[in-house]
Design a protein that fits this description.
Blueprint lengths: L1 H9 L2 H13 L3 H15 L3 H13 L3 H14 L6 H7 L1 H19 L1
Helix pairs in contact: 1-3, 2-3, 2-4, 3-4, 4-5, 5-7
């Protein structure tokens, strides 16, 4: 953890985001999330950070955190209309299906 935080201070925000994006593209979702969360703590959040968090959490089947990041994204990108925005909005159905499955699994254990 110290190494990630130390790295966050020695790199620019753009470098950290690009590193997280590369980690995501290489299937290292946990590392991507750690870098994005460190970046978020450092500079605050923005739609690009939340967008990549959504994709990373969905890739890990962490639908609870995906939903949280998705809702943050929607609040930050109210007026967004591009293709990347539309693609991200399509993730909502996948997130909600994952949440329903978690709820069903929980109820079936009782």
């Amino acid at each position: 953890l110290f190494m990630i935080i130390n790295t966050a201070y020695s790199q620019s925000s753009v470098d950290i985001f690009n590193s997280a994006k590369n980690q995501y593209e290489n299937g290292n979702y946990t590392t991507a999330i750690q870098n994005l969360k460190a970046l978020e703590r450092s500079i605050g959040t923005n739609p690009k950070i939340q967008s990549l968090l959504v994709y990373s959490y969905v890739a890990k089947n962490d639908f609870v955190n995906a939903k949280i990041s998705f809702e943050k994204y929607k609040r930050l990108a109210v007026y967004a209309t591009g293709d990347a925005h539309q693609k991200l909005l399509q993730q909502e159905a996948l997130i909600n299906a994952g949440l329903r499955k978690l709820e069903d699994d929980f109820r079936n254990k009782e």
